[in-house]
Amino acid sequence: xxxxxxxxxxxxxxxxxxxxxxxxxxxxxxxxxxxxxxxxxxxxxxxxxxxxxxxxxxxxxxxxxxxxxxxxxxxxxxxxxxxxxxxxxxxxxxxxxxxxxxxxxxxxxxxxxxxxxxxxxxxxxxxxxxxxxxxxxxxxxxxxxxxxxxxxxxxxxxxxxxxxxxxxxxxxxxxxxxxxxxxxxxxxxxxxxxxxxxxxxxxxxxxxxxxxxxxxxxxxxxxxxxxxxxxxxxxxxxxxxxxxxxxxxxxxxxxxxxxxxxxxxxxxxxxxxxxxxxxxxxxxxxxxxxxxxxxxxxxxxxxxxxxxxxxxxxxxxxxxxxxxxxxxxxxxxxxxxxxxxxxxxxxxxxxxxxxxxxxxxxxxxxxxxxxxxxxxxxxxxxxxxxxxxxxxxxxxxxxxxxxxxxxxxxxxxxxxxxxxxxxxxxxxxxxxxxxxxxxxxxxxxxxxxxxxxxxxxxxxxxxxxxxxxxxxxxxxxxxxxxxxxxxxxxxxxxxxxxxxxxxxxxxxxxxxxxxxxxxxxxxxxxxxxxxxxxxxxxxxxxxxxxxxxxxxxxxxxxxxxxxxxxxxxxxxxxxxxxxxxxxxxxxxxxxxxxxxxxxxxxxxxxxxxxxxxxxxxxxxxxxxxxxxxxxxxxxxxxxxxxxxxxxxxxxxxxxxxxxxxxxxxxxxxxxxxxxxxxxxxxxxxxxxx
Length: 689
What we know:
The protein is mostly helical and 689 residues long. The protein has helices spanning 2-5, 14-26, 47-59, 63-91, 100-116, 122-130, 136-142, 188-194, 199-202, 204-219, 234-245, 250-263, 267-286, 294-312, 314-319, 337-361, 367-385, 389-416, 433-455, 469-496, 502-533, 547-552, 554-566, 586-591, 600-607, 611-625, 629-638, 648-654, 658-667, and strands at 173-174, 180-181, 327-329, 459-461, 573-574, 643-646, 669-673, 678-681. The strands form three sheets. Strands 5-6-8-7 form a four-stranded mixed beta sheet. Strands 1-2 form a two-stranded antiparallel ribbon. A two-stranded antiparallel sheet has the order 3-4. The two termini are 38 Å apart. The model is unreliable at 223-232 and 418-433 (pLDDT under 50).
């Protein structure tokens, strides 16, 4: 319903994504041809677009429709996947009868809502500002860019245009000169609202699948390895162990986890790491007490899965080029704690209560748990002393979570060694076997999320932007998912335990009230932003994302229609290179016919070099300016151009006038024209128009 009232494939990066979809649909070979750099394959993580193209072929629908259906489908898969994972985390705690099946359902609903429906806390301040509430000092302190200049709203929701965009830019960095630096703080509901089918969105159902695989490993019922079966060493024992339980699973693990590198490469090391930590915990539980080979086995499994991922997706890696350029330091830039909490406040409060509840049950922490927790807390004190409060918070909570995860694994491993009928021999803090798995995975997710958010306080992955913008974007996005799922399970975990004494009940009640209020504040964005972005749901609904082009740029739509009907497979189109995040290069995007150069800035991001686009810029100018007909003919032949487009953009950018058109008329055939556009053909196609 929302997409039908906001379907336009326009602005931000939707034209780029539409170009990939149509380029793949037109490609006859792999890698698919890059629609904005003819003669080259797509150099991007494009598996999600292949899946979009597959569904387009299967349904027989127009790509302008399936573009929007893909976004709605991704929302459905993310919501249901998060629900299922949170539900299964709660259901795995079946040794504790409190809560029952309805408790697991509620946990699932909370998990799905936190991951896919809730907004960050910036939305509630938008509502306050729109109603004229709150002081100017408060909004200046928040320091969200452009929030202080918004006028009061004439409606019940904020109505100052793109106000909903600010929620994805709440981290306000400044360089040494005090100039603002853009930092992206996107979250899933914003992504679905925006409507960009970008790789980080296309990968959402698959990262939930990766987490489900990790939970599956922890819950797997396998016989304890007896000492005689453990006599082998190294690879021999590792292979023997797989043969007893997981041999058939490993290729599928490699296939499914490896797909993340093809879907959104940033995600692969994160979720492979989480999976391997879960596998290490499982091995520690399965092995006899005297066996300390779980770490070696986990590292071996990492090599096996990494090798499988590389081998199974080798054709992608062979042609893949990247802008990645190592690791850079953030210098003096730090995230202010109140802006960090604007992003993650709800999740941090829920996770904090979960950690407190697990800590309250812990007894006699093993040395490794003290080391993990002590390292995190020690580093947190150092950061606090330096005034780096966001890093201090992440390290303190992350260190505590790491220590508790080690304790939970050790307690369960010790419990597994207790002989039948000797119940009192288990450590006091040991979790029952069924309930240890969700606790361990939730703690691992907390640790992973806080490692990601703390990393960007000190370093970033270098790219063409030269700042931490993209690293914060990618890492915060995954931290949102991980903290949301852990927080949802944390609520269930706390409510499943019986607090001892009135003070404990009072603290738990206060925590639940605080979490509920923060959840309601996050839902303020969920309720108001779609109404604003869909213009109050006025207008005629449609899922055709290109209908607006036919309505407002009908002659350009006719050009697209003609080329779609007449251009043969393998054709090359020449149009003017376009500006990023604009409607330039719409013809190549909508048809999938490769042009010599589209959004040059994005080609730099995809390939890490601007050498080829820069060379083409000069050649394209020479063709359109047409001063040397012999050179124009040679360039058209060198680039195998089949169609040359002359429209408003080409006339404006290159000054194409009657003299240039006369020169082109002597070289090429006018295959189609209307009052705004001419399509020249180098193939001798018949004239239409």
